[in-house]
Design goal:
Radius of gyration: 61 Å
Oligomer: single chain
Number of helices: 10
Structural class: alpha+beta
CATH topology of one domain: Endonuclease - Pi-scei, Chain A, domain 1
């Protein structure tokens, strides 16, 4: 039994490795030495060739470890091991770059393609922008050229129009001079004929006196008869002269200009009026198109100089009003100063007084009915009702037709003051002094949108139809001016003036003030 175990143990003591291991080691060592020798010999044989093609073969695995022996720097700046290390790192970098390039090349190609697309798009966009810029510049140059040509034409037209205007003004001046010369000659003839007429008259009187004296003697009777015949001839001559040339009896007769109403009728600024919504407003705060009690619409507002009324102001039931204003008393229209209930004020210091135009032509204040500024009595109403401005008989039924009798100017109409300052009519103030030393005693605002542009005696006016102006001594309305309207102006109100001389000038055209507008039809 013991022998058996010993044999078993002997079997385990001598394994393959124990028995042949040293042989394997010797064999491997011999093979390794042989490989080294073969490799070295091969290396020596191929070293020059490898060195010559080093850039192509330096990253081959068999050459990487021997890089320091194959192609080490000849100047000795780097050791063989250091050069092998650098070569190995360089090969690793090259392989990494190549691998990265192979991996990223599709993405880079795609990105490059997209970049080319965007570059092409950007280039196209820039081309479009350049085209639009060129188009804009060319169009601007075209418009500039056209505008330049138009301006050149307009300048020439302007020169022509200025020359034409100068020519017309010269013609007008010549015609005016000729007219004045003719008028002077006419006055000279009138004076001459008057002198001859007076001479004949005195000769006739002397002849009559001599004839009467000669009748007292027998010898003088024939002389008296001759003188009487001579006087008859003279009287016949005088009658013929008077019939053939009437001015010898009385001179020239110009159309009569209607005289304005005076004094003006207005209220104190603090006069309180009841509005349609039952609120209270001072008359100085009333605006166009405000509605008074009874739905009575205001279509005219007046601001007047009070200096002419300082000694003519009365108080009637808390209402301070000028004495010539009409108030209804016991069914009749009477002046406030003639009303038994009115009291004259001893002193009135306000500089401005106010009045209105209303649709009903009346203003109710403190239960008293006053006429508005136009001061239209029943007698005046009958006259206006027969005017050609409206259909006869219609004014009694529609007081709104009174708007046809009033008129005004567009707010930007220019008015020259005495000191040569030019103002828009909407900026004219009470007390301003205009050309020809005309003092403004009242400014008027009127509700009106029918404003036309007309040329009157070479003066351009922007106004409503019922405007009175002087035309060679005659009073005419704008609506009577022949010719085509030059256009219309959009506005919602117009302006007029009241002056101490009852007229004012726009350029050289004489315009009659607001007080004439209705009085023109009452005369």
């Amino acid at each position: 039994m013991d022998r058996f175990y010993k044999n078993v143990e002997k079997l385990y003591d001598f394994t393959y490795a124990s028995k042949y291991g040293p042989d394997w080691i010797y064999s491997i060592f011999i093979l390794f030495i042989t490989f080294i020798i073969v490799t070295y010999v091969n290396f020596l044989n191929t070293r020059d060739e490898l060195a010559a093609n080093w850039n192509e073969v330096r990253c081959q695995p068999q050459n990487m470890a021997l890089a320091g022996f194959i192609n080490a720097p000849k100047d000795g700046s780097t050791s063989s091991s250091e050069y092998a290390k650098q070569n190995f790192e360089g090969c690793l970098n090259d392989m990494s770059n190549k691998s990265s390039y192979e991996i990223t090349n599709p993405m880079v190609a795609s990105l490059n393609y997209l970049a080319e697309i965007w570059s092409s798009f950007s280039e196209s966009l820039n081309n479009i922008r350049e085209y639009l810029a060129r188009f804009r510049d060319n169009f601007a140059n075209f418009i500039e050229e056209i505008m330049g040509q138009i301006m050149n034409m307009m300048i020439e037209f302007q020169k022509v129009f200025v020359s034409l205007r100068d020519l017309l003004n010269k013609i007008l001046g010549i015609m005016t001079s000729a007219l004045m010369g003719t008028l002077g000659l006419y006055y000279t003839l009138v004076s001459a004929f008057k002198a001859i007429f007076s001479l004949i008259k005195w000769i006739a009187l002397a002849a009559i006196a001599l004839a009467i004296t000669s009748m007292f003697s027998i010898i003088g009777i024939p002389i008296g008869i001759i003188l009487i015949v001579f006087v008859g001839v003279l009287i016949y001559m005088m009658v013929m002269m008077a019939r053939g040339f009437p001015p010898v009896l009385g001179g020239l007769r110009f159309p009569r200009i209607p005289s304005p109403r005076f004094p003006r009728v207005c209220f104190d600024k603090d006069t309180k009026l009841v509005m349609n919504n039952k609120s209270i407003k001072k008359i100085s705060e009333i605006k166009l198109n405000d509605k008074l009690k009874g739905n009575n619409t205001v279509y005219g507002v007046f601001k007047m100089l009070a200096e002419n009324e300082k000694n003519n102001m009365y108080k009637l039931n808390k209402v301070v009003v000028s004495g010539n204003h009409k108030v209804k008393y016991l069914g009749d229209w009477v002046n406030v100063k003639d009303c038994p209930k009115s009291v004259k004020l001893s002193k009135y210091d306000d500089k401005i007084i106010y009045n209105l135009l209303t649709f009903s032509k009346m203003i109710n204040i403190e239960n008293n009915d006053f006429l508005d500024y136009d001061d239209i009595t029943p007698k005046n109403l009958d006259k206006l009702n027969n005017s050609s401005v409206i259909n006869k008989g219609s004014l009694h039924d529609n007081f709104g037709l009174f708007r046809k009798f009033i008129g005004g100017f567009y707010g930007d109409t220019k008015i020259k003051l005495q000191d040569n300052i030019v103002k828009y009519i909407k900026n004219i103030n009470v007390g301003d002094v205009l050309t020809d030393n005309v003092k403004v005693v009242g400014v008027v605002e009127l509700d009106c949108s029918d404003v036309k542009i007309k040329m009157v005696n070479t003066v351009t006016l922007m106004c409503s139809d019922n405007i009175l102006h002087d035309s060679l001594g005659k009073v005419k309305t704008i609506q009577s001016v022949r010719g085509t309207n030059l256009g219309k102006v959009n506005c919602n109100k117009v302006y007029h003036l009241i002056t101490d001389k009852n007229y004012f000038y726009i350029d050289f055209l004489k315009i009659y003030d607001y007080d004439y507008l209705i009085d023109h039809y009452l005369e």
